[in-house]
Structures are given as C-alpha cells and as structure tokens.
Design a protein that fits this description.
With 157 residues, the protein is α+β, with helices and mostly antiparallel strands. The chain contains five helices and four strands.
Amino acid sequence: MSRQHFDSLDFKILEMLSKNARKPFLEIARETNVSGAAIHQRIQKLTSLGVIKGFESIIDPSAVGYDTCAYVGFILNDPTKFDSVVEVLTSMPEVVEVHYTTGQYDILVKIFAHNNSHLLELLRGKLQELGGGRTETLISFKEVVNRPLPINIENVD
C-alpha cells in the first residue's frame, strides 16, 4: 500500500485507538473537538484504506493455559516448498505469527504451547514433518516490551 497523506486529526485518532482500541468514538470526538459523525467518518476512511486493519482483544496466553512462547526459524533447503510450509503452519492453532524474512531464516514463526512438553510434541510432530530444511527454536522466558506502533503527530500538515 502506498503511503497516504493524513492530517493531524487522522494521526490523533490513530494514536488514541492504538492505546485503547475500545475508546468510544464520542470520547475521541470530545478530546479532539470534532463531531462524533466526523470521527466515525474518519475511522471508516482509515479502515477502508487499510490503515486500520481491525480491532482486537489482547489475551494473556498463560491465563488460558499457554505458558511457553517460542520462535522457530525455518531454513528451507527447497524454496519452492515455502507455500506448502506456510499452509501447514497456518493450519496449526498454536502458530500465531508467520513471517517471510531475510537473513538466516526463510520463515520465522511465533508459537504458543501449553508447556515445554507440548512444544516438543509440536516440534517433533507437524513441524518436523514439514521437512525441506532445518529449524532453530528460541524459547521466550518473558515478554518485556509490547507496545503499540508509535504514531508521530508532530510535523504533520
């Protein structure tokens, strides 16, 4: 998507929604001194342009039984297997992110497992069956930073 031109109101809306996706439109309108209808139209425009891709609830993985987070890097021997590997990864509910990357890995995957034993089952099961190359697994002990994308409203207009 090419970069669009946005004004300071668009950036202020994005900044507010990135901090709290459930912030009511009327509250945004009040804080920006704009009508609720105008805010609704702006958010619709930002959504239709693909700038806002959706709204999500962030759930604590350990609260629902996923205590192990790991990153698995795939080094494919045969690059033509990329699509079939991604298809299998996409079918696994424990896989929450798949990235096509440069550098050491062809694919980098974020995966949640109930515990280390469950992770080992996944690695020895579907992931090993993918074949086509080698993997490297990194276990995350703790997420220390997770913040919204910085929305820079300075130097706008």
